[in-house]
TrEMBL record:
The lineage of its organism: Bacteria, Pseudomonadati, Pseudomonadota, Alphaproteobacteria, Acetobacterales. It comes from Nguyenibacter vanlangensis. This is NAD(P)H-dependent oxidoreductase. It comes from the Bacteria. One of its GO terms (cellular component) is cytosol. Residues 1-204 form the Flavodoxin-like fold domain. Belongs to the NAD(P)H dehydrogenase (quinone) family.
């Protein structure tokens, strides 16, 4: 299996960096091929601007979706973006690894998504009609590939629980899991989250490292998050609302987009 890890932490000699080493070594020990995009080491350009679209006329207005669509179709995106797109094509599994900063991913990783996910590559594909709304949410270019998050948080697991002050971790990660990974077609695996990372001593790190090794050993077998696929009858078009009869009583919010698991 080919595994791409997109790593977003400014200090390679950090706990995040140590977890990256654990993941890579375990994956390679299992016989998998691994590539790492270390965004800070790469000095990844995080902002989208006119420089991303060499073919855009100087007197044309910058509409990012159109410029990325035209640039992708013409093979005229910048070399760093094209290189990352090739890595995504190569990968069977993609892992985004990052510290949870202000309830989201670091800006450099969001910038990787903004620039690499060009229109025609990660979105804006498939038939758009009164029966379909494009190939997305379970379909698309990344269909057949798996993806997951490795996330570190400073807070306690209780802080990210159903009654926790920060809100449930699955809710906080929903925009990434559902909106960034499931949208272009990835099968999304449950995230691996390490808590209280600023207080991990060697013994506690050893426990987390063992848990991560186990997760890397089960990438091909662990049950994915059972998100509802867009074009398979659960949503009414064009409003894109889950059919009311499919939502159990009391279920609301992000949970309505989870289909009942079938054995």
């Amino acid at each position: 299996m080919n595994v791409l890890i997109v790593f977003a932490h400014p200090e390679r000699q950090s706990l995040n960096g140590a977890l990256l080493d654990v993941a890579v070594r375990e994956l390679e020990a299992q016989g998998h091929k691994v590539q790492v995009s270390d965004l800070y080491t790469m000095h990844w350009k995080a902002t989208v601007d006119r420089d991303d679209f060499p073919g855009l006329s100087s007197d044309a207005s910058l509409k990012v979706w159109k410029a990325s669509h035209d640039g992708f179709a013409a093979g005229d995106l910048t070399e760093d973006v094209k290189a990352e797109q090739e890595k995504l094509r190569w990968a069977d599994t993609v892992i985004l690894q990052f510290p949870l900063w202000w309830f989201a991913m670091p800006a450099i990783l969001k910038g990787w998504v903004d620039r690499v996910y060009a229109s025609g590559f990660a979105y804006g594909v498939g038939e758009h009609s009164d029966k379909r709304w494009g190939d997305r949410y379970g379909e698309g270019v990344m269909e057949g590939k798996r993806a997951m998050l490795i996330v570190t948080a400073g807070g306690w697991p209780e802080h990210y629980s159903e009654r926790g002050i920060n809100g449930p971790i699955d809710d906080l990660l929903f925009p990434i899991n559902h909106g960034i990974l499931f949208y272009p077609g990835f099968t999304v695996l449950p995230p691996f989250v390490a808590y209280r990372v600023d207080r991990l001593d060697d013994a506690k790190f050893g426990v987390v490292a063992d848990q991560l090794r186990e997760r890397m050993r089960t990438l091909e077998t662990i049950r994915p998050i059972p998100y509802r696929r867009q074009n398979y009858g659960d949503y009414q078009i064009p409003t894109m609302e889950v059919l009311p009869e499919l939502v159990p009583p009391g279920v609301k919010g992000f949970e309505v987009h989870l289909a009942p698991e079938r054995d």
